[in-house]
Amino acid sequence: MKEFEGRSMRANVILGTAGETILEHGFEQKIAEPRYAGPTLYVGLTMRSQIEAISPLVDQLMPLIKAGHCVPGDDSHVEIALREALANAVLHGNKRDIYKKVHVSCRIHPGKELTIVVQDEGNGFDPAKIPDPTAHISVVKATLDTES
């Protein structure tokens, strides 16, 4: 695996035909067995759980997303959401454990659809145990309504 500015990353690129790669700068490239993908581009990226690894990954992925023309309007919203998801995976999911990885799967169907999945190697959580963030607001509103 090649080092990219001190951060180790791997990119798997599938374009429906073997031998065609897009990501080159500092990434180890691996071409999976060809599978019919039509015009859809599948990209799998893996990074270490380090905040410093976020920008290089995003900087490699965003040009592909922009070239796909699948985001109506300003695609900076996708970049912000991606950076936030990666930061959450590093900080909360993997708890900055550099031996754990963050995996990003991206499917770009040009002009139609974009899907990005960010997965960490953390323990996860039970969504049912997360308090309702609007519960306090509802209590305050109900109190104000009864006092009127």
Commentary on this structure:
The protein is α+β, with helices and mostly antiparallel strands and 148 residues long. The chain contains three helices and six strands, in the order ββββααββα. Helix 1 (54-67) runs antiparallel to helix 2. Strands 1, 2, 3, 4, 5 and 6 form a six-stranded mixed beta sheet that branches. A hairpin with a 2-residue loop joins strand 1 (3-4) and strand 2. It has a single domain, classed as Histidine kinase-like ATPase, C-terminal domain (Heat Shock Protein 90, 2-Layer Sandwich), CATH 3.30.565.10.
Secondary structure elements and their pairing?
Elements: E1 3-4, E2 7-14, E3 28-30, E4 41-48, H1 54-67, H2 76-93, E5 101-109, E6 113-120, H3 135-147
Parallel strand pairs: 2-3
Antiparallel strand pairs: 1-2, 2-4, 4-5, 5-6
Helix pairs in contact: 1-2
User: What's the number of helices?
Assistant: 3
Q: Helix/strand/pairing class, anyone?
A: alpha+beta
CATH topology: Heat Shock Protein 90
Order of helices and strands: EEEEHHEEH
> Which stretches are low in confidence, meaning pLDDT under 50 for 5 or more residues running?
1-36
What is the average of the pLDDT values?
75
What is the overall shape? extended
Q: How many extended strands?
A: 6
CATH architectural grouping: 2-Layer Sandwich
